[in-house]
Amino acid sequence: MAGRRKRIEHDNHDRWLISYADFVTLLFAFFVVMYSISSVNDEKYKTFSNSLSLAFTQQANSVAMSPQEQMLKALVDKRDARLVEQQRKMQAQMKAVTESLQQAMGPLIVQGLVGVHQTGRGVEIDISASTLFSEGEDKLQAGAQETLKKVALVLSRENQSVEVQGHTDDVPIKTAQFPSNWELSSGRAGSVVRTLAAYGVAEKRLTAVGMAANLPVVPNDTPEHRAKNRRVSITILSPQFDRANQVEPNSSLPVSAPSTSN
């Protein structure tokens, strides 16, 4: 043992490379993280920012309102939601009425004798006067009964008010029975109302109005246009225009043109 030569150990001067490599790796990772942070999706950031703003705003409003104000707001929100739902149901109902009438009046619509469309007041059916009456008369022709029976079948399934308007062209009439177009248009509206009631439409829902030549759909400048203006319009009123359900005890209704119908 005494004679064994001692092992000579040499110093490793390259160990610093390991620490340097670790440092470079950490530095690389640091820059990767910094790059990823700088590349945040702008849209996601905006969404996140807006959500935070909305949350803090709602919380601030909630804190600012008293319990009574919060209760009132809840009632208003509930009422608004109910009105929106009622409006949706009303539109769906009027659309269903329109489709039913278009189906019932299909052949006459194709011939251009009847038009069915929605307006701001409800669903309107325009029927050519020649389909219902002889010239200068307010008595329904035989074929008109079947046409109005189809209309009444659809109307009898509904509960809205129905307004029937008689229209003429601008050619004056002056006979013993009809001194003017007012009487002729009113008489025709009355005849249609009586027929609809006879086929099952409740009388309290019906109104007859004579308009004479005051609401033309086209100018009265040609025979074809005058024929188009001679018509009867049947309007199924939307709930907001339903006068039968809106008249108050002390209110007065506007006076329509004189009518020969009872």
Report a brief summary of the structure.
The chain is α+β, with helices and mostly antiparallel strands. The chain is 50% helix and 11% strand.
Instruction: Profile the largest sheet.
Output: 5 strands, mixed
Instruction: Tell me the number of strands.
Output: 5
Instruction: Tell me what portion of residues adopts beta-strand conformation.
Output: 5-15%
Nearest-angstrom radius of gyration? 40 Å
Strand order of the largest sheet: 1-2-5-3-4
Number of helices: 8
Measured as a percent range, the helix fraction is 40-55%
Q: In terms of per-residue confidence, which ranges show pLDDT below 50 for 5 or more consecutive residues?
A: 244-262
Question: Helix/strand-derived class?
Answer: alpha+beta
Order of helices and strands: HHHHEEHHEHEHE
What is the overall silhouette? elongated
How far is the first residue's CA from the last residue's CA?
A: 145 Å
Mean of all residue-level pLDDT scores: 80
Word description of this protein:
The protein has 262 residues and is of the alpha+beta class. The chain has eight helices and five strands, in the order ααααββααβαβαβ. A five-stranded mixed sheet has the order 1-2-5-3-4. Helix 3 runs antiparallel to helix 6 (142-155) and helix 6 packs across helix 7.
